[in-house]
């Protein structure tokens, strides 16, 4: 009886607990939660499965503003999709991480992770504990990375044709590949431009800050180019009288306003005599004239400031024959500084000869379409550049820009870590084969999940084959046979679906992308498999009226995911 009493009390204790969680809280526990997660992961993977490889389909998405996004970039698609399931959200984060880390492989990472989750399902049904599955996965991951290391081979970063091959194999799966080598040329030029040698053999490549993509609708794709310098959408302040073309300009960059300073807070000045008012105005004018004289003393041809520039100041500068541009973005100013070797000065008084940039060959203002654009070009050894994209419409330009960012990411990875792996599903197949051979040596239950990773890696060549529309089973059997003979560079030609040697085809992928894909996918799958309890509809922020609790938890979560996108 005592035991029953004990149980009874605990039962009573746990009964009110249900009401402790809000009535509309959904709670999934144990097997149900795991199966839900697996289903969600598979659903996300299925959305973008068709966008892998050169014969990929495009997705058309309507975003919140009713604009259209046309793309086959895994990350761009998932960024636009609104998902309610928490596990699916975690999957979408993956492609974002992949995009930020290495810039390519966003689609493969999701497909792989989805497959890893899918393959764990039979184990969970057989009551294998998730930690055992995860242990097997982690072992396989370590061995997989080691196998990738052994497959990788070095490349000479300065060999342009080899680099072009790599970038082309990245772009081959994208919309922009029909424009031939133009985009890959752009990516290579941009990365070589912003590459800074740190002196110890490593490079610092910050594409985001110093290679700006400027999209100008109109013209044709052939007009795209990387400038040896920068451009920005600004006109000079006094179009009629300041010159719009200066050769070998001396450039001065300021980060201070060239107008009379107004008081920080509201200031009142009481004047008793009328003459004092004139004196006050004169002092303002003199201050501005002083500033302009200081500037003119250094004989710059072009003054660029991030802040305002008053009419009076414009008059003085025009008299000295100095061209001025005002209210430039900070980021643009940094790029000009890197391109022409100038230093941005915060006060005119501090400006010295060394702050003036002299490396630019030409400053010009051109009218493209209806807008004026200023160019600072022909710089010697610029460390910043602008990439100009021209194209038929905004949608095309956006897609080309996304492809360009991928291409630049790939170029950057190779420049930072010059190691290559065969593409076309060859290296996944090779790792899969090696893991299957090794699985026999693993003891205990972990052997099965270990083997599952090996089988899961085949999803990449399989999807490639599917997207080509050829007989998947025959192709994969052939591919397995070739790899069993030890030909590790055999993969699927994404255009024809035939089995070919990737070495001859010249389809290469950076080691960084492949390793990152494998790590991210397996680790994410392990993380999601460990979840055994999902409580949704937790606390709401603010005191929402009790009536609409059913919908708002989801809405609030969605608002956050929207907010997280722009970064």
Describe this structure in words.
It is a single chain. The chain is an alpha+beta fold and 567 residues long. Helices cover 50% and strands 15% of the residues. It has 20 helices and 22 strands. It has a four-stranded antiparallel β-sheet with strand order 9-16-15-10. A four-stranded parallel β-sheet has the order 13-12-11-14, sandwiched between helices. The protein has a three-stranded antiparallel β-sheet with strand order 4-18-21. Helix 10 links the parallel strand 11 and strand 12. Helix 2 runs antiparallel to helix 5, helix 5 runs antiparallel to helix 15 and helix 6 packs antiparallel against helix 19. The C terminus is likely disordered.
Rg from Cα: 30 Å
Distance between the termini: 62 Å
Structural class: alpha+beta
Strand order, sheet with most strands: 9-16-15-10
Number of strands: 22
The global form is elongated
Query: Into which percentage range does the β-strand content fall?
Result: 15-25%
Q: Major β-sheet, in short?
A: 4 strands, antiparallel
Question: With helices defined by DSSP (H or I, 4 residues minimum), what is the helix count?
Answer: 20
Oligomer: single chain
Task: Give the helix level as a range of percent.
Answer: 40-55%
Look at the structure and give the mean pLDDT. Answer: 81
Query: Poorly predicted ranges (pLDDT <50, ≥5 residues)?
Result: 544-567
């Amino acid at each position: 009886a005592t035991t029953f009493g004990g149980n009874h009390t605990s039962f009573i204790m746990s009964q009110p607990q249900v009401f402790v969680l809000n009535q509309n809280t959904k709670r999934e526990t144990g097997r149900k939660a795991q199966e839900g997660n697996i289903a969600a992961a598979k659903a996300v993977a299925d959305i973008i499965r068709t966008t892998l490889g050169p014969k990929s389909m495009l997705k058309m998405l309507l975003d919140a503003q009713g604009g259209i996004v046309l793309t086959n970039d895994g990350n761009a698609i998932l960024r636009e999709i609104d998902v309610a399931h928490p596990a699916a959200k975690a999957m979408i984060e993956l492609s974002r991480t992949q995009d930020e880390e290495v810039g390519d492989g966003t689609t493969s990472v999701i497909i792989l992770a989805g497959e890893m989750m899918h393959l764990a399902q039979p184990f969970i049904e057989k009551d294998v504990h998730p930690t055992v599955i995860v242990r097997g996965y982690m072992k396989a991951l370590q061995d997989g990375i080691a196998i990738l290391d052994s497959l990788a081979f070095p490349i000479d970063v300065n060999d342009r044709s080899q680099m072009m091959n790599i970038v082309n194999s990245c772009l081959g799966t994208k919309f922009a590949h029909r424009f031939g080598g133009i985009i890959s040329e752009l990516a290579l030029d941009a990365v070589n431009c912003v590459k800074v040698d740190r002196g110890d053999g490593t490079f610092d490549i910050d594409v985001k800050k110093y290679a700006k993509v400027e999209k100008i609708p109109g013209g044709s794709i052939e007009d795209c180019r990387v400038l040896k310098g920068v451009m920005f959408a600004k006109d000079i302040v006094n179009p009629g009288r300041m010159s719009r073309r200066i050769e070998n300009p001396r450039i001065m960059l300021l980060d201070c306003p060239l107008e009379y300073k107004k008081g920080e807070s509201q200031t009142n000045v009481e004047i008793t005599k009328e003459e004092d008012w004139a004196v006050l105005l004169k002092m303002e004018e003199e201050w501005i004239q002083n500033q302009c004289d200081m500037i003119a003393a250094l004989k710059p041809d072009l003054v660029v400031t991030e802040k305002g520039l008053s009419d009076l100041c414009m008059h003085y500068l025009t008299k000295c024959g100095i061209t001025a541009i005002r209210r430039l973005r900070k980021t643009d100013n940094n790029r000009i500084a890197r391109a022409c070797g100038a230093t941005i000065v915060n006060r005119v008084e501090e400006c010295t000869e060394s702050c003036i940039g002299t490396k630019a060959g030409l400053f010009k203002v051109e009218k493209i379409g209806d807008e004026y654009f200023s160019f600072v070009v022909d710089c010697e050894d610029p460390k910043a550049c602008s990439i100009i994209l021209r194209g038929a419409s905004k949608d095309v330009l956006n897609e080309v820009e996304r492809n360009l960012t991928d291409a630049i990411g790939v170029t950057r990875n190779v420049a930072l870590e010059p190691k290559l792996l065969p593409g076309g599903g060859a290296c996944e197949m090779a790792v899969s084969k090696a893991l299957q051979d090794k699985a026999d040596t693993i003891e205990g239950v972990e052997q099965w999940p270990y083997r599952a990773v090996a089988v899961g890696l085949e999803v990449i060549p399989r999807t490639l084959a599917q997207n080509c529309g050829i007989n998947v089973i025959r192709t994969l059997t052939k591919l397995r046979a070739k790899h069993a003979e030890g030909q590790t560079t055999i993969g699927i030609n994404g255009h024809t679906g035939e089995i070919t040697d990737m070495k001859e085809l010249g389809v290469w992928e950076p080691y960084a992308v492949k390793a990152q894909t494998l790590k991210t996918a397996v680790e994410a799958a392990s993380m999601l498999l460990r979840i055994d309890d999902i409580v949704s509809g937790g606390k709401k922020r603010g005191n929402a009226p009790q009536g609409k609790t059913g919908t708002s938890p989801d809405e609030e979560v969605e608002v956050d995911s929207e907010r997280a996108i722009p970064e």
